[in-house]
Amino acid sequence: MSPLQETLAELVSIHSVTGNEGRLCTAIAERMLPIWTMQSVIRIGNALVVGQQTGRPLITLFGHLDTVPVQDNGEPVTVGGRMVGVGTADMKSGLAVMVHLLEDDAVRTGPYDVVGVFYDREEGPADQNGLETVLDKAAWLAQSEFAIVLEPTDLGIELGCNGAMNAEVVFEGKAAHSARPWLGENAVTKAGSWLAEMHERAPEPVAIDGLEFREVFSVTKARGGIANNVLPAEMRVNLNYRFPPIYTLDEAEARLRSVAGEADRLIITDKAPAGAVVEDNPHLDRLVAITGAERQAKQGWTDVARLSGRGIPAVNYGPGDPALAHQAAESVELANVDRAFEVLREFLIDGQEDSSAELAALLGDGDEDET
What we know:
Blueprint: H1 3-13, H2 22-32, E1 41-44, E2 47-50, E3 58-64, E4 77-79, E5 82-84, H3 88-103, H4 105-108, E6 113-119, H5 130-137, E7 146-149, E8 157-159, E9 163-172, H6 187-190, H7 192-200, E10 204-208, E11 211-224, E12 234-243, H8 249-259, E13 265-272, H9 282-291, E14 295-297, H10 304-309, E15 314-316, E16 331-333, H11 334-349, H12 356-363
Parallel strand pairs: 3-6, 3-7, 7-15, 8-14
Antiparallel strand pairs: 1-2, 2-6, 4-5, 5-16, 8-15, 9-12, 9-13, 10-11, 11-12
Helix pairs in contact: 1-3, 3-11, 9-11
């Protein structure tokens, strides 16, 4: 394996399920300290800011340390040009790329102040996301001219992101003995016509700057009833709403309430804003030119939303495949990891000459080994 691939294997081997990112944060800090000054490696809880401002244009890289729970995939295995293991796609392959970029002398001495932010609790509830604390305590990050979130995009450039909202949709009835249902009202069947409408509801395409986002309402959980012989007095349904970045949180909530208008009650349980689409940014133009990739809309939610809310123009670009995230067979194509590093290194050194021999030495021979 190349040094970059070895780093990825090391990161995967350090389990960092949401809420348990401390060991991984420490390992990355210990690796950065011999290269950067103490003042340039700032730990904030179980998050890490690596780099400093020197007056050059500021470009920031962001990656979350945490993964979903291990599913018998805790140890990395390399086979057939892919590495299999928890977090390989989402997003330790992106973290490995960040680590090597921050260690690269040409990046560190290039035309930009490059800062890496490794943060915790991204996979948990939105209000516990560790990036919010980092942005509060390192407010100077808001001076970034451009930010790249290395979430899995399969080497595509994904702009903006949908917002996300969850609500409990409650239908109320009256309990009664199932032998005498006319004495009560069945809350489950009362919800039936609305559920049927939701089943038939198609995603709504929304075009923004030539990109197609999809507005989606999905029923993801349902519960009702207390016994086999009792009419249920209440039916609760979780409605998950993904909304495009033309709506504010208040506007999105109004739309959700309208869609669930047949319910007796509605309780918003979680919400996160959509991320703005970057426009007229020369750094984005450079990145598109280097990758040769088409711009795409980000259908899922990422911390591009949190960054754009702070006025930081941000995009998603990473080596992982989002279709493989959170699966027991989660994996990443190792050629993608190398390619992401090559692209971002070129982007960050901004056209400085780089011989093929030097790049080959950085990436290694790429031989595939069983790990």
